[in-house]
Design goal:
Helix content: 55-70%
Order of helices and strands: EEEHHHHHHHHH
Number of strands: 3
CATH superfamily of the largest domain: Tetracycline Repressor, domain 2
CATH topology of the largest domain: Tetracycline Repressor, domain 2
């Protein structure tokens, strides 16, 4: 699985006998020469893509860049990443296919940028959220925040969950790292609640995954104008989460 192979994007390589040791945040991996060369290649490709994105975003002659990313978002969500071509994205924006490469090196970079930007916005918005002092208040804040943030970004949420399989290994690792940061927030709240004697869950990681899956699932069925208001949905889900974790 990709998650098991995630080498962080700033790996340290050192020699131990005839092998190379690859150090990253998940531990130490012994690599053959071919494996070490692969890591170096991935780093070079990732760095080149990053430089291309920075140049495009800093270029005052690139007014189409936001339109390109939004077009990619719509098309990926509607048809799936694999079914969308760069020519389709260019046509959506009103560009010639060749001109699209002034704004992005490839389709993979567009997908990665969309996922990364979504996760970074999610983490930043949570940092600005009013959270309360105790674990119960923080859990309620998380529940309401998660539902509200994701409901306003249906296409980005769909892509972030359904298109992970289409990321390259190095891009997957970076997105997985951002997702873990967010998951750690909720698991930290659950652990704090246990320490305070307020929550009783047999496994905080399992509880974290179950809660996030339940909250994200609202996107699959909620539509404005139905019998439940958005505020009522938040109240119901908060009560369900609270009853599931209270001691």
């Amino acid at each position: 699985m990709k998650a098991d192979k995630c080498a962080r994007l700033d790996p340290a390589l050192s020699r131990n006998g005839g092998d190379l040791i690859h150090r990253h945040q998940f531990g130490v991996i012994r690599l053959t020469r071919g494996g070490a060369d692969r890591v170096v290649q991935l780093r070079k490709r990732h760095t080149a893509a990053q430089n291309h994105r920075k140049q495009a975003k800093n270029d005052s002659t690139a007014p189409h860049l936001p339109k390109v990313t939004q077009a990619a978002l719509r098309l990926f969500a509607r048809y799936g990443y694999a079914a969308v071509s760069m020519r389709q994205i260019a046509a959506e924006v009103g560009l010639q296919a060749g001109a699209l490469y002034l704004y992005t090196p490839d389709k993979q970079t567009l997908l990665f940028d969309l996922m990364r930007d979504h996760m970074q916005a999610l983490l930043a918005a949570w940092q600005d959220c009013e959270k309360g002092e105790d674990a119960l208040s923080q859990l309620e804040a998380f529940v309401r925040f998660h539902i509200d943030f994701h409901q306003k970004r249906l296409e980005a949420v769909f892509i972030s969950y359904m298109e992970l399989r289409n990321l390259t290994e190095e891009n997957f690792c970076e997105i997985e790292g951002l997702r873990k940061q967010y998951e750690d927030v909720l698991e930290g709240i659950l652990r704090r609640g246990q320490a305070e004697g307020v929550f009783q869950v047999p496994d905080t990681k399992l509880a974290m995954m179950a809660v996030i899956a339940m909250l994200t699932g609202v996107n699959t069925w909620y539509r404005e104008g139905g019998r439940l208001s958005w505020e009522k949905v938040g109240d119901i889900y908060w009560n369900m989460v609270k009853k599931a974790v209270l001691a």
